[in-house]
Amino acid sequence: MPLGEVISVFAGQCGTQVSQAVWELMAVEHGVGPDGMLIDPSAESDYDKQSGNVFFMVDNKDRYVPRTTIVDTEPTVVDEIRCGLYRTMFNPRGLISGLEDMANNFARGYYGVPQTLIDTTINSIRKEVEHTDLLQAILFCHAYGGGTGGGTACRIAELLDTEFMKIPKIEVAVFPDHQKSCCVVEPYNAILCCSTLDDISTFSVLCENEALTDICTKKLGIERPAFSHLNRVVAQATSGFTATLRHEGPVTASLLQLQTNLVPFPRLRYLQLGLAPLCTADVMSHE
C-alpha cells in the first residue's frame, strides 16, 4: 500500500505552467473530473482511494483536492488556473501570486521577494502538512534559470528544510538551454540555484527544454512544439516516476529505495529520466 502523502510545490512561471499539465494528467489517472468529483464513483475500490490519497485530499463534499501549493510573484499564470477548467478542483488558499515578477534575477527572487508572499506560501504548505497522516515527501517543481523559480523557490526550500528537516525533498527542475533562453543571465541563475539546493534536495530530476523539443519534433511528430507540449512531456515523466509512490507492484520501489539505489553520495543527486515508448498515436496503434 502507499506509504504516505506527497505535497507538491510549484514555483515560478515554468512551475505554474507545468502544474496545469501535471494535475490534469493526475486527475485523468485517478478518474477525477475537472470539478474534483469522481467521474465514476461506483468503480472506485479501496485501493483506488488509498492511491489517490497520496496526491489528493478528499474534503467533506467528497471532492478530490490536490495537495499542492502553486506560487508565482506575478499573477498572470496563476490567474489562468483560477479562471481555467480545473479552477474548482484547487483550494484557493494554495494558489498564491504577487504583484510583480522578479525580472529573471536570482538575487531579486531570493532577497527581494515580499516577506508576505513567503509567509503566505509557508503557511499554505503548513496547512497541507496538517491534513496528512504520514508525510512521505515534498515535491518541488521549478525552473533553475528564473528569478522566481530559482531565487524564490530556493528561499522557500530553505525555510521548509529548517521546519521539516527529516522530510525528503524531491525536485523536478527545468534546466536552461541556449536555444529557448529568454534571458542572458539564466546560466548564472542556474549555478546559484544549484549551489543553494545542494544540501537541501534529496535528489533532483532534471529536464532541459532543448531535449524536450527534440522529443516533440523527432518522436511525437510535432513540427513546432510550444511550451504547452513540453510541459505535457514533463507531466508524463513526473507521473511515471511518482507512480512508485502512488501504487504498489512487483517492480516498484519506495522513495527510500530510490534514494539508496540512485544517489551514492549526497552531492551526486542529479538524475535523468527515461520515458518510453515515445511515438505518435498512429504509430502506437501498430506497436
Automatic annotation (TrEMBL):
One of its GO terms (biological process) is microtubule-based process. InterPro entries: Alpha_tubulin, Tub_FtsZ_C, Tubulin, Tubulin/FtsZ_GTPase_sf, Tubulin_FtsZ_GTPase. Residues 52-249 form the Tubulin/FtsZ GTPase domain. SMART domains: Tubulin (SM00864). It comes from the Eukaryota. It holds the Pfam family Tubulin. GO terms for molecular function: GTP binding; hydrolase activity; structural constituent of cytoskeleton. It catalyses: GTP + H2O = GDP + phosphate + H(+). The keyword Protein transport does not apply. Keywords: GTP-binding, Hydrolase, Microtubule, Nucleotide-binding. The keyword Disulfide bond does not apply. GO terms for cellular component: microtubule. Belongs to the tubulin family. This is Tubulin domain-containing protein. It comes from Hydatigena taeniaeformis.
